[in-house]
Amino acid sequence: MINRREFIGIGAAASATVLLPGCTRTSYAPNYPLQDANGHLLWQNWSGTEHAYPVNRAAPATVDELRNLLVAAPAPIRPVGAGHSFTGVCTSEGTLLSLDNLSGLVSHDAKANTATVKAGTRLQQLGQLLADINQDMLNIPDINKQSLAGAISTGTHGTGIQLPAMHGRVESFRILTLAGEEKNCSPTENADLFHAALVGMGSFGIMTEYTLKNWPLQRTERRVDIVPLDELLRDWQSLYLNNRNAEFFYIPFTGIAARILHNQTTDEPTPRGPDKDMDTLMDLKKLRDYLSWSSSMRRRVAEMLAGKHGSERAVDYSWKLMASERSVRFKEMEFHLPLENQLAALKEVIATIESKCPDVFFPIEARVIQRDSNAWLSPFYERDSGSIAVHTYYEDNHQYMFDLIEPIFRKYGGRPHWGKLHSLGAADFEKLYPKWQDVAALRREMDPQGKLLNPFLKKVWGV
User: Which positions fall inside the FAD-binding PCMH-type domain (predicted)?
Assistant: First the structure.
């Protein structure tokens, strides 16, 4: 028995020994100057899809410092978080605002399993902070480098049909307005602002803290198995209905997928061990480089080894198991579709990639998310959703996502992840979100001069 990394590695090595040398490809990774003509230093997001030369960089340590900053800081003022969004949501040639100094636990209620946390807290840090008070995050994404405010404000999610996205467990938040007032918002206090700004991309003010409803700290079992795609698709509904967290990654041109399940357990801890996703992805790249000229041969090499895989199993706390390191940079497009449309759209995405996009080697990810009603701009607003995410190596051309994949997502009623690649604008969002006009009107009231809007957000809001 071999693990999934060894499985892919053997496939790549086998192909390398009998087939043509790897192809030479043009890199699409940008190489921006470290400073502009005015001496302003480069800022670049994690994937390299966006960059800016902000005039001002600020990292206030108190709400008072933040309040003073908002008065005089050059616009646009954009909170940057971890810079992990693939869109231009946080770029700024004015003020790039870091909330890293506004991080940490404020208070907690052990009986209610709630915790109030500062907005700049990173998700990885939050996991340990909550564990120290015997709480755990209800559901977390597969990357934990984001700030809490950044993740919530873009609708970041994990997976689980009985579990909402991260914003679905926010009981209240505090927001500092451009007028300098710190408001407490909840479903019963400043309710319209709560519903509009909860997933608001930092367009209404600057978040300062959140009160989260959590789980009691309990151990979780993680299982990863390599299975044929046909088998996985056949069982998908049963898997997501009968497991707390269910997701899978389909490996293009192979016919196989990694099935990942998480469930609560009382078993003794079994550490997950080192994250080997980087090695796996680089092996997939080798397989692509040697065999992209022949899709049938690429699939054949994978199928030859499909029966020799093993399983991975680990037991630990959720926050240690559900996120992965993701040290290989990539570009991503993710849409959230009505759950009943997920598999039809996925099959079409796979067929399109495998017939027209031989350079793609990053896995295609599928997850499920429970509907919510507390955030008017939640991609999961009033509908259970199935997400599909397509990834491309950061040095590879990703235009196919817009030309070939986005039209499929839109045909099936998809709403884009607010932090991931898409080409939609205000006219599109008005059709996708029932409360769009109400949210847009409140945003104008909160920021009449557009001090929080950069070019990306001006397109989103239609201004």
Answer: 50-217
Query: Taking a C-beta distance cutoff of 8 angstroms, is the pair 179, 152 a contact?
Result: no
**Residue 176 near residue 206 (C-beta atoms within 8 A):** yes
Kindly indicate the confidence band of residue 343, based on its pLDDT and cuts at 50, 70 and 90: very high
CA distance 249 to 255: 11
pLDDT of residue 233: 97
Residue 139 is predicted with a pLDDT of 84
Q: Which two tokens stand for residue 380?
A: 């999961």
Sign of the Cα torsion 167, 169, 171, 174 reads: negative
pLDDT at residue 27, as a whole number: 67
Cα–Cα distance between 375 and 439 in angstroms, integer? 10
pLDDT tens-place string over residues 354-368: 999 988 989 999 999
**pLDDT the model gives residue 309:** 56
Pairwise CA distance, residues 127 & 19, whole Å: 46
Q: Which domains does the chain have, with CATH numbers?
A: 4-22+229-416 (3.30.70.2520), 43-97 (no CATH)
